[in-house]
Structures are given as C-alpha cells and as structure tokens.
Amino acid sequence: MEQNENIIEVSNLKLSFDDRVILDGISFQVKPKSIFVILGGSGSGKTTILRNLLGLIKPDSGNIRIFGTNIVGLSDDELYGVRKRIGMVFQGGALFNSMTLGENVALPLEEYTTYPSSVIDSIVDWNLNLVDLLHAKHLLPAQLSGGMKKRASIARALSMNPEMLFFDEHTTGLDPVMAAELDEIILRLKRELDITVVVVTHDMTSIRRIADCGIMLYDGHIITRGTLAEMEASTDIRAIEFFRNHEAKEKEKINGDK
Ligand SMILES: Nc1ncnc2c1ncn2[C@@H]1O[C@H](COP(=O)(O)OP(=O)(O)O)[C@@H](O)[C@H]1O
Ligand SMILES: [Mg+2]
Question: Which ligand has the nearest atom to the CA of 24?
C-alpha cells in the first residue's frame, strides 16, 4: 500500500434490517496513522458501521476497501486475512476470569503462532508495558479496575501486531481519570506504532483529546464530516444539537465530580 493511500475507503454503503434502512449511502475515507472518530447519538448506526468494516455483516450494496482490498464479497478465508490485521477492543474487556492478565494477553499468540514460550513471554511483556500494565501481569481480571481491563484488552489486541485498532465507546463506564489514561494510550499507539485507530464515541472530552477527523451520523446518514473544528462549524441543526447536548452533559459530569 502506498504511504498516502487511504487505509479505509467506504463508498455508498447501504444496509436495511427487516425493511428498515439502517445505513443509507455512507461514504468516508480514513488516512493511515490517524485517529478517525464516528460520532452520533444512540441508534444512529455507529456500531453497525464497525461491524461492516470487520466483515461481520454484509451490506446490501456499496464497497468497503480496507488495505486496498474490497472486502465486500470476500470468502471467509479471504476475510480472515484482512481481519487478522485489525484489532478490536471490546467494551467489557472480554478477559477470561480464571487466567492472569499475562495469560490472557498470551492467548492469541499461543493459539495462532508457533512461537516458543520465551518469545511469547517477551511479546506479552512488551505489549503490557505499552499499556502501562507490566506491573499487573500476574493479577486476575477481578483484581483490575475498569480502566485496567480496557487497557488489558488493548494489550491482547496488540499481540497479533495489528495495523488498525477499532474501539466501540471506549470510555463508557470509566471515570474521567481512567478515560484520560486510556486516551493517552491511544495517542501513544498512534505515535509509537503508527497504528490507525477508528473510534466510535459520543464522549466530547475524549473526541477533543484524540480525534484527527471523522464523521457524524444521524439516522444512518452522514450529516457532517472533517476535523472536529469543521464538524463543530456545521450549520446542520442536528449536528448543532448533538454538540450542544453532549457539551451540556459534560459540564454536568464535571460539576457532579466537584
Ligand atoms: N441485527 C440487527 N437487527 C435489526 N436491527 C438492528 C440490528 N443491529 C442494529 N439494528 C438497528 O440499527 C440501528 C443502528 O444500530 P447501531 O449501529 O447499534 O447504533 P449505534 O451504535 O449508533 O447506537 C438501531 O436502530 C438498531 O436498533
Ligand atoms: Mg453502538
């Protein structure tokens, strides 16, 4: 792939569930080594876009080029080749409770590689260090805070050396300090590993910290796009309301913490 080519190119994506239009002609591009945000209220179609990008659901029409390959119409085997280059960070962390943090992070390496255990151990240490969790290697998930679990889930996704990471509502359920730590790590991954990040969120504080550019959805349509400043300058009444509502929520949160 050329350096300046888009790493994701979605064109005219359409999807209906039971005659209900969920995505209505979505087009956007993501530049490599950037942090791209998908904004929008609940039910606007954000998670559905991520699931399309992972090939977990197929659109009714439109194209999705990832790493230069149109993934619409690929066989499961071909899709696997694309998907293994993408790390997905799940909401709850999705760790196995009976295994230590180190064992959880080692799991994909044990399953999908033939590396000797000494090599696996070094990769695990390296990835735990990247998310500031090396000290917690021998703890069980029950002994970790919500923020630590999210970071652990990033370390596990990093095991397979992904070129892209997807996050769905990454700061949900985290207090402001943990959310800030998580954003700091996302910025570090972009800076130090040249990873491309796609984040679904409506957390304005986080968007302000990490977003390079993105799109805002409303009812399956894109209503504004670009940098945060460009989106905030939108004259679309639905975009104005989104920013007004989420800004107000944020102020409430800050006042509530005092
Ligand atoms: N598997 C499904 N079957 C039917 N409707 C669905 C399915 N998945 C999502 N939807 C509907 O699609 C719309 C968008 O959902 P979603 O992408 O999860 O929104 P968001 O992540 O922005 O909250 C919602 O109205 C939701 O009810
Ligand atoms: Mg969602």
Answer: 1
* 8 Å CB contact between 254 and 179: no
Distance from Cα 46 to the centre of ligand 2, integer Å: 5
Give the pLDDT score at 6: 96
- pLDDT tens digits for range 151-210: 999 999 998 899 999 999 999 889 999 999 999 999 999 999 999 999 999 899 999 999
Most distant CA atoms of the chain, gap in Å:
57
**Which mutation among 17, 18, 26, 172 tests ligand 1's pocket best, with the greatest number of atoms within 8 A of CB?**
17
Alpha-helical segments (H) within 70-168:
76-83, 101-112, 117-130, 146-158
Encode pLDDT of 95-142 as tens digits. Answer: 899 999 999 999 999 998 999 999 999 999 999 999 999 999 999 999
Q: Is 13 helix (H, G, I), strand (E, B) or coil?
A: strand
Contact 84, 27 (CB under 8 A): no
Domains and CATH numbers, the chain: 8-85+164-257 (3.40.50.300), 95-162 (no CATH)
